[in-house]
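Changelog entry: the RNA polymerase sigma factor record was regenerated in this release. Current contents:
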Amino acid sequence: MSDEARSYVGGEPTDVELLRAVADGDREALQELFRRHEPWLAARLSGRCADVSLVDEAISETFLAVWRRPRAWRGDGEIAAWLWGIAIRALLHALRPRRNVVERLVRLRPEESTTPEELVLTRIENSDVGAAFQRLSPELRAVVQATVLDGLSTREAAALLGIPNGTVKSRMSRARAELRGALL
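Regenerated C-alpha cells:
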C-alpha cells in the first residue's frame, strides 16, 4: 500500500485514506476497499436482483468505476453511500435492457427464502397499488423505490440515483400524483 494509505495512526486506514491511495494508483488499496464493501454490497444488491451473475457484474462495474475515477467522490458523505450509488446504478443499467425481468427473477428466487418483507411486497405488487407502480416510468419508479421502499432521505436518494436533490423531489411529486390518479 502507498505511504498515504499507511499514514493512519494505529488501526486500519480509513476509507478516505484508501480512496486517496487508489487515486495514486495503489491496487492494494482498491483490494482493501473491495474486501470491506463487497459483502454488504452483494447482500443489498441480491435483495434487488436474484440473478447472481447480474449482481456480480454490478459489483465488478462498481469497483472498476472506483479504479477509473476515484476522484469522482467529492468528499461529502460516506464513501459507502457513494459506492452504493455506483452499484445500484450499475445493477439498474444491467437490468434495464432486459424484458420480462420480474418474471425471470421470480422464477430464480428460491421459495423457501421468502421473508415477511418479501411477502408484503409481493402482495403489494399484485394489488392495484402494484399495478399503478409498474405503470410509472422507470425514473419515477426508481425514486419511489429509493425513498419509500429503501427508506432513504431525499438527499440520500439523490446521491444513490446520481441526480440532483430537487429532481428527486419533483419526480416524487409526479409519482404521487400519477399513483393518486391511478388509484382513484
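Residues 1-9 have pLDDT under 50 and may be disordered.
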